[in-house]
Amino acid sequence: MPFLLLLGAILAETVATLSLKASNGFSRPGPSALSVAGYAIAFFLLSLTLRTVPVGIAYAIWSGVGIVLVSLFGRLLFGQTLDAPALAGIGLILAGVLVIQLLSRGGGAH
């Protein structure tokens, strides 16, 4: 259950970050409201996750998966491109998240 909450937090934060870009500096009301609501939901779900998942593990997964998702959707929605070193770095971040999840004893809920 805690990792479903974390997944919800990551997805809400991803929507919020993409909406922040679309808000054009909070000059567009719809994306601005979606951004604020998304961050509120994300932090609420993250706070619930932290009841059972160590903060370092939760934050590593949160930020790593968030970077990957925002980069992917930034490409799809805004046409933003990443060069080879950026893609390699994102690959390393994803590999780190997988190591935490699959190999670390700290990766599981307590």
Automatic annotation (TrEMBL):
Segment forming the signal sequence: none
UniProt feature coiled coil, ranges: none
Pfam families according to UniProt: Multi_Drug_Res
Cited InterPro entries: EmrE-like, Small_drug/metabolite_transptr, Small_multidrug_res
Transmembrane segments: 32-50, 57-78, 84-103
Keywords: Cell membrane, Membrane, Transmembrane, Transmembrane helix, Transport
Highest rank taxon of the organism: Bacteria
Subcellular location: Cell membrane
Bilayer topology annotation: Multi-pass membrane protein
Family per similarity comment: Belongs to the drug/metabolite transporter (DMT) superfamily. Small multidrug resistance (SMR) (TC 2.A.7.1) family.
This protein's name: Multidrug efflux SMR transporter
Native organism: Endosaccharibacter trunci
Lineage, opening ranks: Bacteria, Pseudomonadati, Pseudomonadota, Alphaproteobacteria, Acetobacterales
